[in-house]
Design a protein that fits this description.
The chain has 460 residues and is mainly α. It is 65% helix and 3% strand. Strand 5 and strand 6 form a beta hairpin. It is a multi-pass membrane protein.
Length: 460
């Protein structure tokens, strides 16, 4: 792996310049920025284990280890933090309810292995086949239905304490619109802090947890400052495990889209040659997810929160991420940190997930907008419409010993309707097929009126 060269004077970044992945600022600035990246990822990373019942400290540990693995596998040329992926929330929740944590971890491992294999194929064959399998209308539908499928879970927590949930939700929104830059990007984390303080002031920490026989305040005070995280092993023997694994497979499509988007984003802001590491990025995330699932952590993905921090600071140095990964590992060895997160009241989770799950859905819709999907075409209409209703309503189907939920069925529906619909429409020449992105209205960056007949007459 290449070593870092010092950028400029090591203290400042010139106007219009960026600190490249193979560069770094002075070590004090690098360490400070690494800690900042930990703060940026923390709000979202701890939510996944908190919502699914996985150990928070274990997830943090494999988040940090996964980040370091990612840097090694991508030859230290692709800056990224691997945090907990929201795409795992729905299948993990369902798997834990059906077969326990062991079955859920088996699903995480399966996703990691499959993602790594996809990465190998991409490294050898390129990205073209992924674009063909998941064009924007399909990719957007899959991402959106995963978020909207979680709506009932958000409501379940919200109704447990509507007042605290409302305070938390309002705080998340206010922080997002009141603050610019970094504080605005961690609005979810700040909203949780506000909700947590509000719940504490209203006596939530004096309520005894029936499962442990202690109050949250007692659990936090009794937890040690240093100690080992809890480790759990996947269970591939449980009869229902292979049924639950099917629920996890659509997550692979989401992780592919997230990783490809991350690489393209970094390439746009630094150097186009970064795109050559797309296959390695998929392999790295697959290996990190497999490792996490093998010992009790949540599946990982590249984090948009940290891309935002890089865009704001113009520092893309991988040295910063080595610091962030090591800092996360150190935090993982504090049971007290885990106890604090495990004490978050249901109302707080209800408020923040109402926003968070909706935002996952909106990311899918943004894919449609960014790629100008033509929803006047019937194939595109039905691809999105059917997939979303299946996901939101939570359709389910039992085939022998296998049970398929809304995410699996919605994903299959999107793929089948799009590809089979296009095949039929093009064979019949009905015009119902996907005709590609809607053309831009008027010349980009110009005045559409310039090409009006009056303007043309004026030129002659």
């Amino acid at each position: 792996m290449p070593l870092w060269t010092v950028h400029g004077d090591g203290r400042t970044v010139a106007a219009g310049a960026v600190v490249a992945p193979t560069e770094r600022l002075g070590w004090p600035a690098t360490v400070a920025m690494g800690v900042q990246h930990v703060v940026a990822m923390f709000g979202a990373t701890f939510l996944v284990p908190t919502l699914t019942g996985f150990p928070v400290s274990t997830t943090l540990l494999f988040s940090g280890l996964g980040t370091l693995l990612f840097l090694v596998i991508t030859k230290n040329r692709l800056p990224s933090y691997l945090g907990s992926s929201f795409a795992f929330i729905a299948p993990i929740t369902a798997a834990v309810a059906a077969g326990g944590m062991g079955s859920a971890l088996a699903g995480v491992v399966a996703v990691g292995v499959l993602l790594a294999l996809v990465g190998v194929v991409v490294q050898v064959a390129g990205l073209g086949w992924i674009d063909a399998l998941m064009p924007p209308v399909v990719a957007g539908a899959i991402v959106a239905l995963i978020g909207f499928n979680l709506a009932p879970t958000a409501w379940g927590n919200f109704e447990a304490d509507p007042v605290t949930a409302t305070v938390t939700l309002v705080a998340v929104i206010l922080f997002a619109v009141l603050f610019r830059g970094f504080l605005g990007r961690i609005s979810i984390f700040l909203g949780v802090v506000v909700g947590y303080v509000f719940a504490a002031a209203n006596g939530s920490f004096d309520v005894v947890n029936p499962a442990t026989g202690t109050t949250p305040a007692e659990a936090i005070s009794e937890a040690a400052w240093a100690g080992l995280p809890q480790f759990h092993l996947p269970d591939f023997i449980e009869p229902g495990t292979w049924t639950t694994i099917a629920m996890f497979l659509p997550v692979v499509l989401v992780l592919i889209a997230e990783n490809v988007g991350h690489v393209r984003g970094v390439a746009t802001m630094t150097d186009p040659s970064v795109n050559a590491h797309t296959g390695r990025a998929l392999i790295a995330d697959g290996v990190a997810t497999t490792l996490a699932g093998g010992f009790g952590g949540s599946g990982t993905t590249t984090y948009g929160e940290n891309i935002g921090v890089m865009a704001a600071t113009r520092v893309y140095s991988t040295a910063v991420y080595w610091v962030a990964g090591l800092a996360a590992i150190l935090l993982a060895f504090s049971p007290k940190v885990g106890a604090v997160f495990n004490s978050i009241p249901a109302g707080v989770l209800g408020g923040v997930t109402t926003a968070l799950y909706g935002l996952i859905g909106i990311i899918g819709i943004k894919i449609w907008v960014d790629n100008r999907v033509d929803f006047s075409r019937p194939v595109n209409q039905y691809t999105a419409a059917v997939a979303l209703v299946i996901g939101i309503a939570g359709f389910s189907m039992q085939l022998g010993d296998f049970a398929f939920g809304g995410i699996v069925l919605g994903t299959v529906a999107a793929l089948v309707i799009y590809h089979l619909g296009n095949l039929i429409a093009r064979a019949r020449r009905t015009g119902a097929d996907d005709g590609g992105p809607i053309p831009a209205v008027g010349p980009l960056g110009g005045d559409p009126l310039d090409d009006a007949p009056e303007a043309q007459a004026g030129r002659t």
